[in-house]
């Protein structure tokens, strides 16, 4: 398996001046040359699931797509050499769960919030083509254009109180109003386990800890969010980065 040094990587993130609050952003987390090397590894050296649409490979603990937490039945998988230089350093320790995903043109991900009690911070590195991610809370919609080689951190409101999603479609409209064809994209999502496995945000709509404290037992499933995604979408706000 190929090894890529950390040369050219920097960790300088700034919070976007938008709502939801808590989105931190860094342009060019890696160089274009590094990105090309990673795409070669993704295409030529990794074994991907044999199915259509968005596909994933997990490192560390495995993300559970039924509960949005950790799958307790799958052993911890060590990080490969190519991944080590890409680990964000701001948290002071490595993440416990990393998910590499491939989005072919037209693929998306339903609106969801990662399980509060399981995970704390969430980072995402975009590789390949750009794509628009939508944050949603009630009737509010905010689009963020995820540019190639950019690193995004979701914390606070953006992590806990807004869902995030990528719509299934073949085109996006960027912050300048230009229609853009989608192409192959990869993302690396980094998750840190929450100490104590309890969240104190109190949001009964999204927080599993808050739900349990009021007697609500609910397992998050993709179909619940896919159904909610059919609701009419009001006027959107578009965040332009850079």
TrEMBL record:
**Biological processes per GO annotation:** demethylation
Q: What organism is recorded for this protein? A: Cytospora mali (Apple Valsa canker fungus)
| InterPro entries to which the protein is assigned, alphabetical | AlkB-like (IPR027450), AlkB-like_sf (IPR037151), ALKBH4 (IPR032857), Oxoglu/Fe-dep_dioxygenase_dom (IPR005123)
Q: Where in this protein does the record put region Disordered?
A: 223-242
Q: What is this protein called?
A: Fe2OG dioxygenase domain-containing protein
Q: Which PROSITE patterns match?
A: FE2OG_OXY
Q: Which Gene3D superfamilies does this chain map to?
A: Alpha-ketoglutarate-dependent dioxygenase AlkB-like
A single MF term (Gene Ontology)? demethylase activity
Q: Which Pfam families match?
A: 2OG-FeII_Oxy_2 (PF13532)
Per its UniProt entry, which superkingdom is the organism in?
Eukaryota
Which ranges carry the Fe2OG dioxygenase domain? Answer: 94-194
